[in-house]
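TICKET: design request
STATUS: open
ATTACHED STRUCTURE:
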């Protein structure tokens, strides 16, 4: 077997770790989106208004942005084995509470708490990066992300039927509780069967915990600047839930959230200073430097790839229904193809990145993504339905292959901070979704696709400034010696 190929039928060594980890990610998304396909039953059980249903859908993603940052720090510090097992365990308990909710307030509280399970994606990025060499890490990360991400589609396909099997008004409760039970059992399975690194390898940890390390003065300020959009996205979510929109939050609650975000940003800034103030006293040795622009550009790339995927999946069924006069079932079935492409497109993006270079692959895929969205902006009722579906699937391929190409490069930035780099890029994906969906609330679907295409062109320019990983990167062993790690 060549060094660049993977024997996915194996269940030993690094392949076993890959299978066990993508399934852990699959379950995290299965739980994260277990309410969406059962929302009609939940709405009927609690007599919810459309505004209350919208609030439940929005609040499900609110905690994911900060959670991905925090989980990224924890996984770098304590290892993916412990953190993934703990995340699955805790999310299963919250899942049980959601299934037992007896009021709308409890539904909101438990759904908000379950938003942190969306950070599970970050954990596996570090795990796969530890087990696979640079020549295979792209396709391995793509398989992990693509197959694991299918958990949301699997929930949509399976849970309505499972709820019907239990019958009665509480069928939705048993279906959701079942997802919690499976996740609870697997949290112990995962802890028992995986290791953080292959035997004999060292798990490198950050020198300090609390913020990402940077290696120059300019990167210090660049890092602070890149934190601002994440807080802005959370403020937008609060605004959408506030008195000017869904009216779930009152004026006092909304103002308190805005103030809390300012305080949190000030606190994070102090942590960034605590971790990195040494760069203002003496230069970091060249062997230990990395360029933060690599992180920032990958953030922007994930903003337009995963961010647009989340946004488009949310609006595509209604777009097909209204444009072509389809039934809800027909529109949902056609739109689901956008998510199904994850199974092959994301691994494909990682594979192309391994074989043809990180920067060139990402450039090509984001260019294709931009063209795809500009084409979708032209779709109207005069188009043949089959042609519209083909255009949608082609665009989806570039979107999700682009996601695979982003995370083919994340583990190659700085090994000991892979969790934090993945966490920040993942958070930017959610920021993109909030940004694009907010834009969608003000414009037509055609203009919405044009907005994403325009954002992709900006990301395309940024990607050309990426440095292609080459040679080796340095990490410090516990005894103070330096180990060099191949990134080519």
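STATUS: resolved
RESOLUTION: sequence designed for all positions
ATTACHED SEQUENCE:
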């Amino acid at each position: 077997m060549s060094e660049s190929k993977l024997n996915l039928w194996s269940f030993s060594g690094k392949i076993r770790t890959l299978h066990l980890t993508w399934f852990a990610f699959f379950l995290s998304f299965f739980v994260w989106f277990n309410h969406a396909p059962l929302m009609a039953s939940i709405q009927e059980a609690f007599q919810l208004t459309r505004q209350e249903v919208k609030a439940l859908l929005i609040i499900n993603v609110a905690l994911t942005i900060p959670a991905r940052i925090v989980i990224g720090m924890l996984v770098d510090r304590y290892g993916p084995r412990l953190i993934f097992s703990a995340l699955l365990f805790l999310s299963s308990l919250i899942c049980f509470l959601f299934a037992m909710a007896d009021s709308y307030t409890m539904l909101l509280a438990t759904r908000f708490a379950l938003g942190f399970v969306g950070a599970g994606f970050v954990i596996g990025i570090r795990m796969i990066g530890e087990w696979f060499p640079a020549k295979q890490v792209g396709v391995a990360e793509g398989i992990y992300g693509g197959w694991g991400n299918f958990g949301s589609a699997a929930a949509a396909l399976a849970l309505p039927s499972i709820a019907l099997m239990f019958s009665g008004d509480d069928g939705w409760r048993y279906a959701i509780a079942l997802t919690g039970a499976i996740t609870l059992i697997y949290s112990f399975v995962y802890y028992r069967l995986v290791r953080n690194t292959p035997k004999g390898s060292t798990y490198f940890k950050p020198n300090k915990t609390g913020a990402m390390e940077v290696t120059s003065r300019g990167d210090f300020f660049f890092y602070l600047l890149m934190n601002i959009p994440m807080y802005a996205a959370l403020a937008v979510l609060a605004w959408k839930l506030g008195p000017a929109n869904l009216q779930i939050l009152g004026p006092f609650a909304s103002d308190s959230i805005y103030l809390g975000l300012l305080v949190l940003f000030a606190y994070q800034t102090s942590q960034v200073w605590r971790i990195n103030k040494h760069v203002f006293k003496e230069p970091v040795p060249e062997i230990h430097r990395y360029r933060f622009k690599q992180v920032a550009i990958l953030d922007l790339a994930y903003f337009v790839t995963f961010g647009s995927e989340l946004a488009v999946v949310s609006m595509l069924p209604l777009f097909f229904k209204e444009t072509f006069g389809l039934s809800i079932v027909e529109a949902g079935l056609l739109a689901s193809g956008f998510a199904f492409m994850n199974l092959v497109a994301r691994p494909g993006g990682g594979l192309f990145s391994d074989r043809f270079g990180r920067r060139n692959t990402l450039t090509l895929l984001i260019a294709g993504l931009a063209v795809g969205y500009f084409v979708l902006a032209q779709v109207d009722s005069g188009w043949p339905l089959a042609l519209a579906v083909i255009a949608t699937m082609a665009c989806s391929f570039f979107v999700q292959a682009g996601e695979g190409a982003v995370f083919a490069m994340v583990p190659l930035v700085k090994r000991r901070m892979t969790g934090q780099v993945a966490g920040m890029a993942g958070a930017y994906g959610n920021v993109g979704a909030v940004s694009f969906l907010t834009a969608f609330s003000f414009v037509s679907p055609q203009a919405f696709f044009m907005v994403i295409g325009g954002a992709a062109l900006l990301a395309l320019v940024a990607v050309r400034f990426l440095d292609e990983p080459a040679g080796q990167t340095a990490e410090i062993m516990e005894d103070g010696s330096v180990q060099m790690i191949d990134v080519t």
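CLOSING REMARK: The chain has a mean pLDDT of 91. The chain has three domains: 1-203, 217-287, 288-488.
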